[in-house]
Task: inverse folding
């Protein structure tokens, strides 16, 4: 495209959104930053539309001009999916942040894509309902981004991934037409379930502009415990016991390694050793019920007593107040936030069947340590969903840049083990740019072919978030 044509298209795009919807070059930097600093974005123009109609008009102009479109939500993604390139238009949904409707009897909420996740949670709470999606970035990620990455987080065990929470979507297709699929139905078998295509598509098939989502009764009783254990096998045995003993009321079950506690104590603010002694592994678990008088405390105490008698759990605390509960979850959040303080960190976001989590961690730790003695595995996360953030911290004193050059090499070692155990190379963060080559390596040829056919059918011009996922 020559400069005159490009300037003409940019002018047309800007006129659709008006001055409030145009981000000036001087203010564009935050839209180009990538969370983990592995990529740097750019764009011909950064636009912030205020309505579905404006998004549709923008996309129609881009489609006609074959101009790449890069959708962006809160830009908190961890796979490089929202990184734009200088040949295209970055469309950020942040101004489309209205709650359109809340139907308490139907247990649904309809929100625009740019609605911040924490705002959505608050709107549900105000109506005595729960929107259960919860993750460390909830203060800045947007529901459109959550849907596009099929985000997971800390309550998946009980309520499912974002996919399970979505009942209907409104989407601007790559030709600029609007598909209104905003249904609030639990049951509807009317042909292909189109919304599923856009969930987890990372912006490659269209722009989600609104969604109707499931709500749940708000929990009235919550019990949270942090427990110290000797072996990762014990953690997983405890998980099975906790699911059963709680009457299947387990909402979260997270793994914390000792290296994570050490790191939080050293680099975080206001933390203290959580238990009397140090333990190789910790489990943070939470059970909840929407009923008062559910006697969760008693169930938890009985579970712990039995687990300690069986030498499964060495020590533990149960939160005595909401403040103490928050403090326990603060350790978990800091664990993720502070992970890079120890130096270069090679990331993995993998899942295996829950029954193979311990085996995976033991095998993968051994394999990476054999390849690079002194490497520090930092495995943590949502093991109740079989999801491990198997991150690898550089050996102490190693050159960070030299270490990070070995990213692909360690990915291959870890992902080979994951796949041999029937697992997935991306449990919740998505493919984006960071795992695109790994997807090409591990996906079945027929899977890749089918994905490419879906992409070509919906986006024949290849303008939607090009270069991502496939
Ligand atoms: P962005 O980062 O802006 O975009 C992500 C992808 O979605 C991109 O491909 C983008 O093109 C596309 N996209 C965004 N909006 C739209 C739209 N409206 N239509 C079409 N495509 C769109 N993730 C988890 O799953 N679980 C966790 O526990 C978790 N914890 C995190 C903790 C921290 C501290 C941080 C920083 C991130 C965490 N994440 C987690 C990752 C991230 O928050 C999620 O992936 C989140 O869903 C991204 O939302 P976003 O609005 O920031 O999307
Ligand atoms: C988390 O669970 O904390 C995030 O998904 C992981 C991360 O930040 O690596
Ligand atoms: Zn996570």
Result:
């Amino acid at each position: 495209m020559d400069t005159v044509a490009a300037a003409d298209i940019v002018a047309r795009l800007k006129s659709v959104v008006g001055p409030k919807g145009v981000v000036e070059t001087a203010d564009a930097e935050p839209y180009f930053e990538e969370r983990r600093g592995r990529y740097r974005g750019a764009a011909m123009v950064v636009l912030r539309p205020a309505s579905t109609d404006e998004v549709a008009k923008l996309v129609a102009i881009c489609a006609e001009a074959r101009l790449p479109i890069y959708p962006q939500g809160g830009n908190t993604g961890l796979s490089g999916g929202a990184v734009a390139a200088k040949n295209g238009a970055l469309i950020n949904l942040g101004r489309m942040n209205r709650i359109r409707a809340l139907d308490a009897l139907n247990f649904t909420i309809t929100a625009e894509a740019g609605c911040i996740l924490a705002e959505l949670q608050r709107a549900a709470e105000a109506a005595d309902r729960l929107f259960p999606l919860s993750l460390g970035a909830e203060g800045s990620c947007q529901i459109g981004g959550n849907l596009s990455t099929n985000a997971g987080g800390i309550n998946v065990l009980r309520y499912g991934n974002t996919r399970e929470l979505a009942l209907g979507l409104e989407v601007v297709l790559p030709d600029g037409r609007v598909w209104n699929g905003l249904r609030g139905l639990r049951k509807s078998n009317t042909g292909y379930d189109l919304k599923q295509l856009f969930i987890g598509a990372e912006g490659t098939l269209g722009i989600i502009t609104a969604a109707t989502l499931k709500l749940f009764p708000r929990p009235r009783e919550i019990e949270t415990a942090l427990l110290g254990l000797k072996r990762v096998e014990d953690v997983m045995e405890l998980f099975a016991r906790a699911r059963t003993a709680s009457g299947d009321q387990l909402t979260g079950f997270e793994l914390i390694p000792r290296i994570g506690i050490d790191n939080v104590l050293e680099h975080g603010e206001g933390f203290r050793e959580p238990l009397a002694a140090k333990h190789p592994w910790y489990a943070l678990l939470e059970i909840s019920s929407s009923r008062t008088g559910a006697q969760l405390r008693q169930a938890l105490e009985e579970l712990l007593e039995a687990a300690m008698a069986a030498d499964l759990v060495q020590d533990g605390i149960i939160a005595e107040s909401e403040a103490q509960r928050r403090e326990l979850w603060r350790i978990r959040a800091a664990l993720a936030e502070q992970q890079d303080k120890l130096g270069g960190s090679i990331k993995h976001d993998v899942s295996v069947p829950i029954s193979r989590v311990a085996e995976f961690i033991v095998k993968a730790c051994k394999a990476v340590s054999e390849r690079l003695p002194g490497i520090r595995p930092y495995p943590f996360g949502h093991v109740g969903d079989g999801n491990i953030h198997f991150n690898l911290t550089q050996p102490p004193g190693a050159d960070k840049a030299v270490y990070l050059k070995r990213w692909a090499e360690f990915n291959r070692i870890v992902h080979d083990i994951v796949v041999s155990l029937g697992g997935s190379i991306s449990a919740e963060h998505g493919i984006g740019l960071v795992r695109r080559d790994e997807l090409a390596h591990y996906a079945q040829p027929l899977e890749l072919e089918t994905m490419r056919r879906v992409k070509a059918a919906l986006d024949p011009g290849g303008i939607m978030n090009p270069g991502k996922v496939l």
